[in-house]
Design brief:
The complex is a heterotrimer.
Chain A: H1 3-34, H2 41-44, H3 63-117
Chain B: H1 2-23, H2 27-47, H3 51-76, H4 80-83, H5 87-109, H6 131-139, H7 144-165, H8 177-182, H9 185-188
Helix pairs in contact in B: 1-2, 2-3
Chain C: H1 10-16, H2 18-38, H3 43-62, E1 68-70, E2 75-77, H4 79-102, H5 109-127, H6 132-150, H7 157-188, H8 193-201, H9 208-225, H10 234-241, H11 244-269, H12 274-297, H13 302-323, H14 326-352, H15 369-372, H16 374-388, H17 394-408, H18 412-438, H19 451-469, H20 472-481
Antiparallel strand pairs in C: 1-2
Helix pairs in contact in C: 2-3, 2-5, 3-4, 3-5, 4-5, 4-11, 4-14, 5-6, 5-11, 6-7, 6-11, 7-8, 7-9, 7-10, 8-11, 9-11, 9-12, 10-11, 10-13, 11-13, 11-14, 12-13, 12-18, 13-14, 13-17, 13-18, 14-16, 14-17, 14-19, 14-20, 16-18, 16-19, 17-18, 17-19
Classes of the chains: A mainly alpha, B mainly alpha, C mainly alpha.
């Protein structure tokens, strides 16, 4: 499509990314220079009162999140395959349609299975 | 010229963030580096006119796969400090293999077969060529067997995840919607003759 | 859309894919059948076994004198594929029969057989591929199923560990394989073995480094899958941790598929690089044979011992690849067939000895078997003698053909080296026989009583003896299978 095309179409996106980074970085950088900072040991401790933290703030996740995430990946991929198919459907015709139906049926089998198995049920 | 600059920017950033993945102490930071690496790889796809692949890379890898990674890391409770214990011990062997591979890669990529002169015309296609359409035309015709196998691989991934993670908990209470909907008056109300 | 004829020639192409379609449709049907109807009963298992038979019948009815090529060259159906598909059917069916009793108390048992069928489907696609696209997809389908099967006993810690190791190393090896393929694709611009081979034959001096790098990665990636040293590290752990029927299945079927694809690559893709790949393979074979046979001696767990013994056998099978001749290739097929029968027999005996809790898999557990069950003892003895390569049992001929092929190709020293380690290997095989026949019973035996499994032991033992006495039919069959490949 050419360098000119890339430059025209994606320059706004690139500028947008640059602005976004600048906006994100600005508060962090500006406080370094503008704010008055006089740290001491007490100020830097986890809390100025109360207990030290006992453990990592991060809790262990349940394995069910993993199941949901992988279901999401599978069906996300499925939808990714649908985009180019939709564009060329008028050229590949009925044959292409049947082919995609087969693809979807295979995943539908998986969907019915997961549903019946209770994988979509949040206990 | 501008294109070359962008290529080196995306390429360099992805290499740096790749190193970040390996070297970061906190596994969560590794994941963030990996996400950044995927963004840069996607930028490389854009430079190659493969816009569809670039967007899919962000959509699937950043949007779905990295979420999965995130969950796995949250699930595992990895102690990064403990993982590093053997690091120095394995460094000599690992480093040696890495250096050998590095030399081979340099030899292979500078050997001339990937040089610009050997590649024929290295130009962009005209703007009338739509890369999504091109992918569609070849993926659903010539590569249809692979396409259908991909569906089966996805199905197996789903089965595997269900089999390995699902637990039947007897103590969990949930509503049975269809039973609630199908309920009839006779099931709930009983006439008692006094 | 180069080479794509429109409209798609439906019937011709689909008929070629008949066995695969039967397996895929039945696997999906069984998946739903199990959750809706069977709910963990053995019906699913029997239907799955019936599916392998149906696939066998379909394959048999399709085979003809000429190779069929379908799906724009992405799928081939030649006599080579037919032969290897039958090996895969037998291995899968036996794997399922061995699981009937062993796995009956597992949760989600219906999916277990479905995953086995999908693994079989992946291997069927692998052996029918003459290009990297179908090969890689088949390989991943198979690998994904086997990872799950290894982890099937979720509450068993060592199963989890085994599956995790296997998965991570397997994923790494897939990455290496893909990386190697990209280099070869970069040089040739094609995925088709024959086209790539043609291009590689005319590759100029410039390309050598890239081609070599691609080839090294390719061999390493495939080497992982068939457990060649130094890429064998996952083998003992995965074999020990997996449920024993899965161990039996994965020690045979993926090896068949892996070596078949290796042979196709060597025959079609790399003929121009014969000297280069031979020197790599010789180095790997020397290491594999030594590691497999030496490490097996130190094992007390029979599953670990058999894992190293597999590595050793892989080393011997590689001699056929190194020979690179029709004799070598048919030797590999002979070796794989006989290896299949022996391995399935051994694992059947191990499973029959399963005890409550512990699973009858330490070498000590075999002590005194001959006094309690002389039949099993005899079968186990036969398998061990056969694996050691004692003449006139099946295993002897397996070694004989690959060694002869290697000698004919001029690798006399390699063969002498292999013979030396073959003698070392005989030690640990015969040690099992010593336990069975000359030791006193240490732990009370408690056998599974299962007719199908006892039949498996009987049939495999008889086959090994029969093949030892009359190997010519098998030799001829394997020679026939190679028509068209080399």
């Amino acid at each position: 499509m050419g360098a000119a095309y890339l430059a025209n179409e994606y320059a706004p996106i690139f500028i947008f990314i640059l602005v976004a980074i600048a906006m994100g970085a600005a508060p962090l950088v500006l406080t370094l220079f503008l704010a008055e900072q006089k740290p001491d040991a007490e100020k830097l401790s986890a809390y100025e009162c109360g207990f030290e933290a006992f453990e990592d703030a991060r809790l262990q996740f349940d394995v069910r999140f993993y199941l949901l995430a992988i279901l999401f990946v599978v069906f996300d991929l499925e939808s990714a395959f649908l985009f180019p198919w939709a564009i060329v459907l008028d050229q590949i015709g009925l044959f292409g349609f049947v082919e995609m139906v087969l693809f979807l049926v295979v995943l539908l089998v998986g969907y019915i299975y997961a549903w019946k198995k209770g994988a979509l049920q949040w206990e | 010229m501008l294109e070359t600059a962008f290529f080196y920017m995306f390429g360099g950033m992805s290499v740096l963030s790749g190193m970040g993945v390996v070297l970061a102490r906190n596994t969560m930071h590794s994941v963030m580096f990996l996400i950044f690496c995927f963004f840069n790889a996607s930028g490389l796809f854009f430079l190659l006119d493969a816009e569809f692949l670039g967007i899919i890379l962000i959509l699937i890898y950043v949007g779905a796969v990295m979420v999965l990674f995130m969950f796995v890391i949250m699930m595992l409770e990895v102690n990064a400090a403990k993982l590093r214990e053997g690091f120095l011990q394995y460094l000599p062997l690992g480093g040696m293999i890495a250096v050998v591979l590095m030399i081979e890669f340099i030899a292979a990529s500078s050997s001339g077969v990937f040089a610009e002169s050997a590649m024929g015309a290295v130009t962009h296609m005209g703007q009338e060529v739509n890369n999504t359409k091109e992918i569609g035309q070849i993926l659903y015709t010539r590569y249809l067997l692979g396409f259908e196998i991909a569906a089966i691989i996805l199905l197996v991934a789903l089965i595997g995840a269900v089999v390995l993670t699902i637990r039947e908990r007897k103590d969990a209470k949930y509503q049975n919607m269809s039973a609630q909907v199908k309920v009839r008056r006779e099931d709930r109300v009983r006439k008692v003759s006094m | 859309m180069a080479n794509v004829t429109f409209p798609f020639p439906f019937p011709d192409h689909l008929i070629t894919l008949m066995p695969e379609m039967i397996v895929a449709i039945m696997a999906m049907f069984l998946l739903l059948f199990d959750v809706f109807v069977a709910k963990g009963s053995k019906t699913t298992a029997y239907l799955a076994i019936a599916t392998t038979v149906a696939a066998g019948v379909a394959t048999w009815s399709l085979q003809g004198p000429d190779p069929l090529v379908a799906f724009y060259g992405f799928f081939v159906f030649d006599s080579f594929a037919v032969f290897s598909k039958f090996l895969i059917y037998v291995a899968t069916a036996l794997g399922m029969i061995l699981s009937l009793e062993y796995m009956k108390n597992e949760k989600h048992i219906g999916e277990y057989y479905v995953l086995m069928l999908f693994a079989m489907l992946g291997m069927m696609l692998m052996v029918s591929s003459n290009n990297f696209v179908t090969m890689y997809l088949g390989l991943e389908l198979m690998a994904l199923c086997v990872y799950v099967l290894v982890a099937y006993q979720r509450e068993v810690l060592r199963a989890n560990e085994a599956a995790l190791k296997y998965f991570i190393l397997g994923a790494l090896s897939s990455g290496m394989l893909l990386y190697g393929i990209t280099f070869l694709y970069g040089v040739t611009g094609s995925f088709d073995f024959a086209v790539m081979g043609e291009k590689l034959a005319h590759a100029e001096g410039d390309a050598t480094a890239a081609v070599m790098l691609g080839m090294v990665f390719l061999i390493a990636g495939l080497g992982f899958k068939v457990s060649m040293a130094p890429f064998h590290m996952w083998t003992p752990d995965a074999y020990e941790g997996a449920p024993t029927p899965v161990t039996a299945f994965m020690s045979v079927a993926p090896k068949v598929a892996g070596f078949v694809i290796f042979m196709r690559i060597v025959a079609d893709l790399l003929p121009a690089l014969q000297h280069e790949y031979q020197s790599i393979l010789i180095g790997v074979a020397v290491l594999t044979i030594a590691v497999g046979n030496l490490a097996a001696i130190a094992q007390r767990n029979i599953k670990r011992m058999l894992a190293y013994s597999t590595v050793g056998h892989v080393g011997f099978i590689m001699m056929g690849l190194i020979a690179g001749s029709p004799a070598g290739f048919s030797g590999i097929l002979v070796y794989l067939s006989i290896y299949l029968v022996m391995t399935m027999g051994v694992f059947a005996v191990i499973i029959l000895m399963r005890r409550e809790g512990i699973q009858g898999e330490l070498l000590d557990d075999f002590a005194g078997l001959s006094k309690v069950r002389p039949g099993y003892a005899l079968a186990m003895g036969l398998f061990m003698f056969s694996m050691a390569g004692i003449p006139f049992l099946g295993g002897f001929w397996a070694k004989y053909v690959v060694f002869m092929a290697a000698v004919e190709a001029g690798h006399l020293y390699l063969v002498l080296y292999a013979l030396l380690f073959s003698a070392v290997g005989a030690f640990y095989y015969l040690r099992v026989v010593k336990y069975i026949y000359f030791d006193e019973e240490r732990v009370a035996f408690n056998f599974i009583e299962s007719r199908p499994m006892q039949a498996t032991v009987f049939v495999t033992a008889v086959t090994i003896v029969f093949l030892g006495l009359f190997p010519d039919a098998l030799f001829e069959l394997c020679r026939q299978a190679l028509v068209g490949l080399v």
